[in-house]
Amino acid sequence: MLPSPNLENVALLGQIAVKSSTAVLLAALGEIVAERSGVLNLGLEGMLLLGALAGFAAGTATGNPGVALCAAALAGTLAGLVHAFFTVGLGANQVLSGLALTFLGAGLTGVLGRDLLGAPGLVLAPVPIAVLAQIPVLGAALFTQPLPTYLALALAPLLWWTLGHTRLGLIIRACGENASAAHAAGVPVRLVRYGCTCFGGALAGLGGAFLSLSYTPGWKEGLSAGQGWIAIAMVVFALWDPLRALGGALLFGALIAAQFAMQTESANWAPVWILRAMPYLLPIVVLALIFPGSRRRRYIGPPADLGRFFHPEG
Predict the structure, then answer these.
(1) Residue-wise over 82-104: b if at least 16 C-beta within 10 A, else e?
(2) 8 Å CB contact between 239 and 58
(3) CA–CA dist 61, 101 (Å, integer)
(4) CA 168/CA 239 separation, integer angstroms
(5) Pairing of β 144-145 and β 127-128
(6) Whole-model pTM above 0.70?
(7) How many Å apart are CA 43 and CA 39, to the nearest integer?
(8) How far apart are CA 237 and CA 8, in angstroms?
(9) 138-152, 210-224, 275-289: segment of lowest average pLDDT
């Protein structure tokens, strides 16, 4: 049986792993919904930054966690609305629009956030769940987390059920698979795509707020550190399935926790830069193994109309 200190270390690493997965998971879940409706959004990195700045600024000004999270979600929603306006409304190239949104988010937050660099602000404290938090190891890892982490963990099965087993999910999937057929059946395809893109933006904004209010409290330029791109890769890794995205995000978090553990133990078998790169290299390796050539691709793949502009007849 492991001694108590080792159990405490395992619990701490588990807590770090779950916490490190939160922003990626929120952004990936929102992107899954958007892509299932037919809209590709490569602007998650910019949305995370906008949500991080909005959440930190609102939290610093009011000291209210609810206001901070709402401000972040609103910032992400507005960014999603901009993307939807150009791609769904005007038919702009979805890849270019997403990339422009990433650059816009990075540049805008760099300018607007100058006065907040290094400033103290609101910090989201962990909210232990009674009884469950007392479970050895698992309690500290899963049930002693900030509110956005609980939201992300709960949303994964909820969205899985919604997309796969409800009428709303059927409508969303129909818009992404065959927009013309959905339109012929009376589905407002553009409205659905607007809503899904804004929903994805809201979740990305919340993910950004989590970064600036809990994961690494404070504001600095480039706070997202590439997690938006990891979230986009996670969607493909998960084969557009929210539950698989949960597993992938937890794996990403586990690699970050392992990196911290190796550095703490002064591991000399690999340079520090390799340890730091591990969580970001894994999605690349996995995607290289999955696409092309995966036999599952013929059964599970991207929505057929993903990235295609829909022209309603008449």
Answers:
(1) bbbebbbeeeeebeebbebbbeb
(2) no
(3) 26
(4) 20
(5) antiparallel
(6) yes
(7) 12
(8) 32
(9) 275-289
The single residue listed with the structure tokens 């962990």 is 126
The count of other CB atoms within 10 Å of the CB of residue 25 is 32
Query: Is the separation of the CB atoms in 237 and 114 below 8 Å?
Result: no
Nearest alpha-carbon partner for 192 in 170, 161, 162, 223: 170
Model confidence pLDDT, tens digit, residues 59-93: 999 999 999 999 999 999 999 999 999 999 999 99
- pLDDT tens per residue, range 116-146: 888 888 899 888 888 887 787 777 788 889 9
240: left (phi over 0), alpha (psi -120 to 50) or beta: left
Instruction: Tell me which amino acid residue 16 is.
Output: I
* Distance separating alpha carbons of residues 14 and 12, to the nearest angstrom: 5
- Map tokens 């290289």 to a residue: 288
Q: Is the pLDDT of residue 299 over 50?
A: no
Closest CA to 191 of 30, 39, 55: 39
Q: Are 208 and 55 in contact (CB under 8 A)?
A: yes
Q: What confidence score (pLDDT) does residue 297 get?
A: 45
Tokens of 103: 């650059």
Q: Which domains does the chain have, with CATH numbers?
A: 11-298 (1.10.3470)
Written as six digits, the tokens of 264 are 């703490």
Angle between helices 189-210 and 227-237 (to 10 degrees): 130
